[in-house]
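Exam review. A common question shows you a sequence with its structure tokens and asks you to describe the fold in words. Practice with the pair below. Do the first one on your own.
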Amino acid sequence: MDATFKVIRKPFIQMFSVHTFVRHEDSTKQVPLVTSMMSRRSKQDYITIFRGILDSLPSPPQVQRVVLDYEEATWKAMRIVMPNIKVQGCAFHFTQAVYRHV
């Protein structure tokens, strides 16, 4: 999952996207599944998005792990909606945060 702010105009403040990895033989591709334009970034907003995604699927997904940036509201929402999966932070966003403070 990822969010971007640079390509969005009011009334929205971020574009939030959910991706998955698709593997075939020796090839792995990252595929965007859902994109959402958000006007707020609260825990409840993310819960609404995550539940909306799950409700639109024909069967429960076989998700074992999600990788998120370090926005607290996203982590809290994911742990509420899918409490049995492993949540981990994104290495790219972690490195970006470290370099901002060096």
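Now try the second one, then compare your answer with the model answer below.
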Amino acid sequence: MSSNIVIAIDGPAGAGKSTIARNLAISLNLKYLDTGAMYRAIALYVLHKDIDPQDKDCVKSVLKKVNLDIKTKSNGNNLVFLNNQEITDEIRQPEVSKAVSYIAENFAVREFLVEMQRKIGRDGAVLDGRDIGTRIFPNADFKFYLTASIEERTQRRLCDLLKEGYNTTYNEVKQELLRRDEIDQNRTYSPLRMAEDAILLDTTNMTQKEVLSKLLERVEGHE
């Protein structure tokens, strides 16, 4: 397998993108980049500065003070650093999840991050996000779009949050996912949509192992 192939994995929140993308990268000996973590990092910074994430001009004004660095652990996970401080766990807090869709619809933020994402991925990587196959790498070697029913996505996200010690309910998680879907799909810049040449995979009734196997079959079948 070539070390410079680019694989784009897009889809809504809770579809299992990050886990599958990370495991796919490990299987293919490629870098992995969770682009959503980059938006979360900026959301965290904005919240720490007591800035309204919906105030596009204020958010834009602080971007010049943001220094992001993404490193990869031996297990494939990304370590996220904001201004030399590791924030990998902090960016998964529920309040960051609520703010990140507003950050992601900010044109200035997307332009700020797009070149960084391309630089990291251009020599070969598996990237997951909302607009990898449509905006970041429209000429990616492989494009996948993962989705699942809202019930399945809610259950997955709920399990993750409970494991991390957050106190929440099924209905709260479901409403948050629906809210994020609405914002992601209807934003002006780089809305969530499946690339015309992407392979659609509904993971509702599939295990992580089954999803990974499907993707590997597609990629390795084109060697």
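Model answer, second protein: The longest helix spans residues 170-186. The mean pLDDT is 93. Full marks require stating both points clearly.
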